[in-house]
Amino acid sequence: MGQNVVLDIKHYSKSYGASKKAANDINLTVESGDIYGFIGHNGAGKSTTIRAVVGVLDFDEGEIFIDGHSVKDEPLECKKLTAYIPDNPDLYENLTGIQYLNFIADVFEIDEEKRQTLIKKYADMFEITDSLGDLISSYSHGMKQKVAIISALIHEPKLMVLDEPFVGLDPKASFTLKQIMHDMCENGAAVFFSTHVLDVAEKLCNKIAIIKNGEIIEKGTMEELTQGQSLESVFLEVEDEK
Q1: Predicted TM-score (pTM) of this structure
Q2: Based on the number of CB atoms within 10 Å of its own CB, is 162 exposed (0-12), middle (13-18) or buried (19 or more)?
Q3: Looking at domain 5-90+156-241, which of 1.10.10.10, 3.40.1190.10, 1.10.3470.10, 3.40.50.300 is its CATH number?
Q4: Distances (CA, A) of 91 to 26, 96, 147, 230
Q5: Strand partners of residue 112
Q6: What is the sign, positive or negative, of the torsion defined by CA atoms of 45, 48, 49, 51?
Q7: Angstrom distance (rounded) from CA 178 to CA 172
Q8: How far apart are CA 162 and CA 84, in angstroms?
Q9: For every one of its 242 residues, what pLDDT tens digit does the chain have, with 9 covering 90 and above?
Q10: What positions does the domain ABC transporter occupy (predicted)?
Q11: Distance between CA 41 and CA 89 in Å, rounded?
């Protein structure tokens, strides 16, 4: 049985002004069940690509499809299927945690019973249920990140896109997030995330793409790329070569 293609990036490029391309002819396919790591140094083009995938950044060259829908031509359809967690979530600080989560559930038209079930499930997993009545402005960075993650899961997305998701999360919350990623993928969704924490990527991902200076220099399954070496040594090797 063939896997469903959840994210298909075809010949995507992005320039800022006349300078060198921040992303140059990116081609990448993420299938249902994949936990796909997108790795590279800061400034390599990871966030530029991710922000185009989730519809935050316009682009002129190439096409991006989410579950067969064009990000350019069907942006609303794509947003319904996607969850995006940026590296620094920007939440409405004058709302309480539960007000914010209900607001997001309203946007996605999630019925009362389903939202309550999912909010309780994920808030319990992240151990923040007792704090949901507090104002977001009183939350630590890690707490805000947990609320952002829960808000991204309420509509049961088909594609979860994360930018450096483990920065700012404590070890237990990181473990919980990894568990959620695995559960989603077992149910046919896909995860695409950027990171420069290579040991996390090595343990978590079944596929990897390495980006340098806006270009993908290596991609494939973890087994194909590492062949018994550590991901770190492979990354340093291809970085030096290209």
Answers
A1: 0.92
A2: buried
A3: 3.40.50.300
A4: 31, 10, 9, 37
A5: none
A6: positive
A7: 10
A8: 6
A9: 346 999 999 999 998 877 778 899 999 999 999 999 999 988 889 999 999 999 999 988 999 999 999 999 999 999 999 999 988 888 999 999 999 999 999 999 999 999 999 999 999 999 999 999 999 999 998 999 999 999 999 999 999 999 988 887 899 999 999 999 999 999 999 999 998 889 889 999 999 999 999 999 999 999 999 998 999 999 988 887 76
A10: 7-238
A11: 21
Tokens 């992303």 sit at which residue?
23
